[in-house]
Protein 1
Amino acid sequence: MNIRQALIMAFKSLVTSKMRSFLTMLGIIIGVAAVIVLVSIVGGFSDEITNMFKDMGSNLLTVSIIDRGSNRTVSNTEMMSFAEEHNDLIRCVSPVANVSLSAKRDTVELDTTSITGVNEYYPDIANLTVTDGRFLSFIEAEERGHVCIIGTHVVNELFPGENPLNQIIKIGGQPFTVVGVLEEKADSAERSSDDIIYIPFSTAVALSGMRVNSYSFSAIDQNTTSEVSLLIETFLTKKLGNADNFFIIDQAFLLSIIDSIMGTLSGVMGGIASISLLVAGIGIMNIMLVSVTERTREIGIRKSLGGKRRDIMSQFIIEAAVTSAIGGILGIGVGYLLCRLASPLLDLNVRPTLFAIALSFGVSVVIGMVFGYSPASKASKLNPIDALRYE
């Protein structure tokens, strides 16, 4: 008997017992759908985190200097000169001064808004886009300019329905002119990247009375961040005397670690979901054993007419594989629909990946064949005379 005949017989057997066939497939359907949904959700989280890092700049390095009361320090001028000396690797650098001040306009006050002092290079470093107005100028950054650039959440809170450009807000009790509005990135939500005000770092230092202890570097590209990190480490070790007095965060390195973690998590979640496929395989084996028992006389007739053992085995193995394959196809459809439903509920781009579909479908077919082997072997070993006598 060839494969075509075996497939025809397998489909006839499934059609003859529709309800039993569906219940047999149900475990495969659930298992395949679970694998697809879980792997796709992990993939959605991974994409979300990756996009967040890319928005912040994948070639970004953040340097934080720990103030231990030592006389050995590094000035803003020295950091800028260092960046200029290595302009073949470093695109630009900006001091970053986070200050705890409130922003106010008339009677409306924002206590949660992040106020950060930077220089004119910061938009290139952090991938910021100014949609209205402009960013800081060199003179404003160096000479304590009282200007600011605000996020869309701040616009909505302080200037509802108004054009904020050239209007005045108070930061730490001091008047600041709004010269720019940033592009919306997080639906203008409170405490998000849209809830931000940028001012000149020199002004932030003057208002807070603190010196700058953080710098953001932008490498020429993502491939040079590790080299830039080593250069900064060498420079600061000489200036500060001890590598324990600072630390460097390499965004590209963090991104690679997160990708690795998410890849492992995706495999683990897929493995957990695949356990349901294993349970489904046991169900297929049980049903196939029942099928062998019911078709004992049929097997006896085929063997008495010259049917070989391998023909009987192939018939039942193919039948098990067809059952699991159909279940796998239906499971892919269910998994796709669940992913479409999960996307708006989780606010993620949950899309089935080719890897998840291929993995779940391949495993389902293999499980069907593996668990179908035992019933097929039992059927092929039946004695034709005893099989013909079976009632």
Protein 2
Amino acid sequence: MKSTYLLIQPKSIKSGVFIFSVLTIVSMAALMYTGEPLVTKQTPRGIISYELAGNTAKTNMILDSWKPSQKMFAAFNLGLDYLYLIAYSHLIALLCIIVGITLSQKWEKVANRLTGLIMLAALLDATENFGLLMNLFGSQNDLWPGLANWCAVLKFTFVGLGILYVLSGSIILLYRKIKG
């Protein structure tokens, strides 16, 4: 089964890359801005420290260390991440398709599989955000920190694979172009 991205016309793919690039850059900048107040002694990596807390005790330690204003930044950051996950996932998926189509049928098959993993990463990101918001709003259910942690780890893995694929393919394409 082919990726639905393979059904998109090449001109539309280029437009999609442009639109999702802009959305990704703008939302990433906003996430960095709203995430800056979340960097503390207990959360040296800001919101990522919270995403990877993994258990209720560590999550509560993080939430207890944040002032009410920081919790507001965290809530806004997590809400904004829903826009970001749509933007980055579609951008990476489209770039995978471009690389795959340009290189070979084998690369295209890998791109087809990767687009599915990238969309799964977006779903995992949304689930992670929900769990983090549940804790932020006071839930003490042990399910949420562990779920958020696992979703984050898988999300980072799948997104990393997509980015690695695009970079590897781009290097090969650049080498071919230079070589003639």
Protein 3
Amino acid sequence: MKQVITKDNSITFFNEKYDEHYHCLAGAKLEAIKKFIEPTNVKDGIVILDVCFGLGYNSAAALDTANNLTIFALENDPKILEEIQTINADFESYNMIKEVAKHKDYENTEKGIKIKLLLGDARETIHEINEKIDAVFFDPFSPKKCPELWTLEFIKDVFKTMKPGGILATYSCATHVRQKMKETGFIVKDGPIFGRKSPATLGVKPL
């Protein structure tokens, strides 16, 4: 796996299988903050679903933002979890991410943090989640490269885990993705613009 420095000096990697980088080259760290943390209103006490954990930047940015978080992380590639141990990402909480990548379960009672990493096919591990979700970081590789995680069936499974009023954030603005989200029941809105001309996408589960 090839390491790449993005424009905000944060590290990402290039995945040869999917022929894509794990993050936007305009800034891996900033992407986590601008496309996932800010639009999902991460705050103390919420439950997060991190779909496609990767290097753990989205979860790390959440941990830097709030306490008393419960995070369920889905990832199918043990190799990227190994890469986490080789880098020092610019997040205060990245030591927690390293522990999660190594042990799959992490708890910090002082900060009220609980993290569970479910390793395997996300279409299967999604069914192991037993709490209702406030915020979803939906961050698979692109629909062209990883179509299996952008199906109507999987989006419906994610929707089922969410609380009414919960927010899903994804970088994709593909028409077919938004259509599937609408068909599932999401209220679909434009997300922030970062690193590209098109906006990201937000899906709100109705109250």
Protein 4
Amino acid sequence: MVETTLFVALDTSKNALDVALAEPLPGGEVRFWGTIANQPAALDRLVKQLQKGGRRLEFCYEAGPCGFGIYRRLNAKPGVSCQVAAPSMIPRRPGDRVKTNRRDAKTLVKLFRAEELTWSWVPDEAHEAMRDLIRARSTAVQSLTRCRQHIRSFLLRQEIRYAGKPWTKKHRVWLGRLEFAAPAHRLMFGEMLGELDQGQARVARLEDHIRELVPTWSLAWLVDAVQALRGYRLIAAVSLVAEIGDPRRFESPRDLMSYLGMVPSEHSTGDKVRRGKLTKTGNRRARKILVEAAWPYARPIKTAAAHPSEAVRMIADKARHRLGRRYRALLARGKIANVAIVAVARESIGFIWAIAHAAAPGATSGQPGEHRHRSALAKVGAGARSSHG
């Protein structure tokens, strides 16, 4: 008996899953199957019902707040596979003004069957847990920044200024000694200082948790290797690795740059070639880390961080000189500093990709590792040239 495939799309929400089915091409029927509860037992019953006759099931759904539990549950079943579609890459009809869960499910299954969807990378459960911890720290830092801004704005309205460097221990002591005539101001400022202290303590606790857990993580070797580059200490390195995963899954640095939205947009037609700003279609958190870590290249070159792998040290040393020259050359061409730093950040992606290949377990010992890292550096140059047009 020939095994046939049934394409299934799920439109997910907090309480329900809308299910659409599509028979294989050519001429396969597309229909809305119905709505089920967003619960494991209901999903199991759906699979059992659709598998009657021995059909293979191909599921898909959009990435969203429901996470990857459905993906993992379905892929654990025999005869079933599941993919998670990237929402920003789903084709949309500009003239379509009607949106319902039913229509979304049917549209998704048509695109799935036609192979018009782009799949999201799904981390394993341990990686997702580490990423959640990193993002919790990022949220805590944002809250702390807002708290500091509120304090700064309040003091500015009261015409109170601090002459030294802000947010140091000395500055905190100075804040605690401030007095205000209005009782409402005294109470409010006390609450703000309490929030400041709590925010700083929370960030410190989360960073301690990260330092404790990173050595047991499967990508600890990559976190350690990335710190050989300028601009990357532990928190920045683990944050970047948590967002992009293992760069070795990309065939070239150019693919990784495109995945992160760090390649120029383009609108060319006929003989006209028009390139614009960065696409910014990828992971915004990873882009922010890359740009922040690129700023040290605007300063004089320092000695590269030590690393036990000679291949990693060679790549980091080449990055120090090449990215510094790149920044200065762009400034000499009249580019503003922010634009030059973004270009440096884009090119640094290639070095991160090369370091991942050179530092991978079993890749840095002997001649094979040396050959691999030289090949990776060659692809870095090719990817950088193509990304700069």
